[in-house]
Here is the input.
Amino acid sequence: MAKINIDGVQNVEVSIKIPCEKPMMEQLDIMEAYTKAHQDSAGLDKAKREINCLKTIYPALFRSIEDDDLIAGRLDFLPIGFGCVTSVGGVGHYCVFHKLRAFKEQLDREEDKARVDVLYDYWQDHDVKSLYCQDILNDTTTGRLIDCKYPFMATARLSGMMLNYNKLMRLGINGIIEECKTKNQNGFIEASIEAMELLKKVIERQQELVKEAAAKNDDPKRQAECQLMLDSLEHIKEHKPETFHQALQLFWIYALCAGVINYGRMDIVLGSFLKHDIDRHIINEDDAYRYLKSLWRMIENRRTTVNGRIIVGGVGRENVEACDMFTRICLRVCKDTRYVEPQFTLRFNKETPDDIMDMAYECIASGATYPTLYNDDVNVPAVEYAMRVERKIAEQYIPFGCGEFVIQGKSVGTPNTLLNVLKILQLALNEGYDPMDHILRAGPMKVKALSEIKSFDELYDQYKELLDYYFTLSVEAQTYSYQIMNEQVSFLYTSILMDDCIGREKALLDGGVEILGGTNEIYGSINASDALYAIKELVYESKKYTLEQLNEAALHDFVGYETIQRDLLDVAKYGNDDAGCDEMANDLYEYIAKGIRQKGIDANLGYYLIVISNNQTNTDWGHETDASLDGRKRGVYMNPANNPQGGAAKSGPTACLNSLAKFKAKYHGGSVQNMKFTPRMMHDDKEKVKALFDTYFKKGGCQLMVTCVDHGVLEDAQKHPENYPDLIVRVAGYSAIFVNLTPDIQAELLSRELYD
Amino acid sequence: MINVFNIEKFATHDGPGIRTTVFLKGCSLHCPWCANPESWSKKPTLLYDQRKCVSCKACAASCTTQAITFDQKWQWDSAKCFECRQCTQNCLPHALSFAGETMSVDAVVNEVLKDKDYFDNSDGGITVSGGEPFLQADALAELLKECKCHDLHVAVETTGNVPLSDIKKALPYIDLFLYDVKHLNADTLYEVTGGRSEYIFTNLEWLAQRDPSKVIVRVPVIPGFNANQEMLCKIIDYAKKLKVREVNLLPYHSLGKNKWEQMNRDYVYKDLKIMEKCELSEYAEYGKRQNIKVKIGG
Here is the structure.
């Protein structure tokens, strides 16, 4: 098999993972056991096969409790196993081939290496993502994630699942088993029951691990903490949770087993338990703070890079007082811990209490980059339209990963397709060839030569036709990813807590989930619209150059054509509140957003929406994208999310935010806005900065993320990384430790305007 | 038409709330610490950034009147310049730029109005600064009248070094004067800045008498000139006597230094360090004791 390259890097991985604590040979034994279970279950129902495989890794892969853990549950993963996403392991039954090779290289004995080779060969034909890639990738249009030579990348993954933990809290493990027993006993339901029984075994294993931890430390305080964990574990094994700690413990164990890396509206799940305990003096706020700090550390230690969402606040919450109590403690934890994960997110609206908004501001001004702010007054009606759901459902929207929206417990919205619309513009300018490598990437589309193009509209139409072609490829690839994953796996733990898989007696992608949506990550859209605007101005308005002249200059990377590059750069750019180029940006945005959305409707998806919420792919993809007619040189990073190209926004934060607020939120499924301010401005001009944010939100701004960093600090951190181990910056849809980023990503961050 | 050399959005140091500051060309003073020396001339001023220059000399080659010469050193003779702007267009690295542009009042107002939502939400508005705005008194009055039609809060930052009649032209449209008081000794003031006390103090006293709540006294605190306890306290006492609403002490900063270099002029304060806010905190206390608000910074 292997007509495609299965060996590349699969994901954005900024954070350095904590290695598995088990000895190498034990790891190899587990991978072999997993593989054997997969082989032996070949003829069985896919759900049965899945649970048989899961039994080989759970609870085996749970690792020791750390000294300061207040919640039990640390999980390793191996190059072979089961998962949802590439950040922790892989997708479905997975093998991460390059990691397996690295594993092999660490072995000494030839016979052990041969054992790895057997696994490698087996998984070439069984790794779920590879099965997908074999069918969908090709040499011209569609590349794997991450292969930036292509205008389009596709993958199979199940990102951003945020489960209905309320159900787990309401029913407990036994309650879910009882519910399953009332259903038709098909393969899925039977395997679900086994999965919940397996969860009990996982809990029992945690009890052993806590006892081991307790035996290592006879400090009375630590003994009491261990006893608390033991008591909670004992309780949740057979009963639904009653206390805050029990609820936290159950949630955490379940999330680990489900392989999910975004958690969702935790104030709704845990707030009422917190209030219950505080009202009855079972715990005080400091206890809750310590428990949550421990949770923060557990999430940080999973190192899922662009995920780890905990969301609080906003509309659609029943016990608001309890939820806000939870929110306030989270804000304290967030400010004190300064981790890159969890990606702590505050939904707010006009009714959000002032003290919470103030705490959020202080947290941001302290340099934590969190919370990320989401404006419910804009987002709820936008989601209602975009996803075509009732308001009550839209109220449960949540951003995951880098900012894609899903409905908690109700929708799948994984971004399995990614488009570089700047590269596609270059195809439109070069008869379908990519100037980067001279490969024809237009499929069956006929692309006119520039000499045949007589007007701006004709050029724009040609671009739109190519976009349409790529929209079609996208939706086909997205739906096919569900088909392949569904053929192979049931995603049992995810399905159990997603409405309404148990009710329908079907696995998630088998018709179980209520809303089967999806998202398409869009890159380079501002470079593309700025390029179009420059063409419009210089070729068709001022007639200073012909289209061929401009394109010729770009093909030479502007070497020898510096005057043209300067003139291109001097044309107004998005991000400066300039009516003309902002209108171009909005027109292109709406064309892409509406086009993708309609493709989803036509394909009977619950929704299929663009997200303009990049991670660092704008930089990676920029490396493989030729010079563009916004004046950008070959290989330079592209614009981040729907923000201006680095260095283009020169008119201050109000102008930039005015440009950003022009895009209507109802056409996309998540977008992110990054700004950098100095600590001086955040503190000395606090009221003015607050008014700035507030006005932007009133004008329709849907989201904002702020990095607070001083002049020269990032530059100095590049030179002396050892002095800045905890300098957090907002990359785009996620935060990272600045010194962990590669120099090219650092350069892109530096290029962005710093407001002082 | 009005001569403008900069429009700064989200200006946070030029009056209350979020503001857009419009900087007008022309000034009758010549303060040696000036942060905007390109504002002095009423005509556009050519700025030359040596750091960006690659010595291609395209500017000199394109200059038909020999206003630019570039033998050993780049030089510009404003008297010979007809502002054809060929030099800036031919300067690929953007080392040359003109400060100063004649704009229609409507164009300025439209640019300012783009941030009206931010003004309304923060009790902000427009601030006109300079240079000395009242040197373009008629155009200024027209601009501010238009701003008032759009219900904007209007502040004007002025040196006061103009005839009162010029101030009166725009007076009905001004909500707040940010009025510079640099020194109280008339001779020193004239010697160092060219400011005339018969204008500056007379105008200030007239405005304060008329409505002191519309006046904030602003003092650029300059080492070696007025940065001493005696002078600063005297200015605070003077402001108190006039019953103005507050005094702003603006610590010396060197942000204008590059501009002096770009104009081929010597900056006498080039070795001076930026003054920290805390160096002036005692005057905030002094103000409290005198029962007048003294703020450090704009």
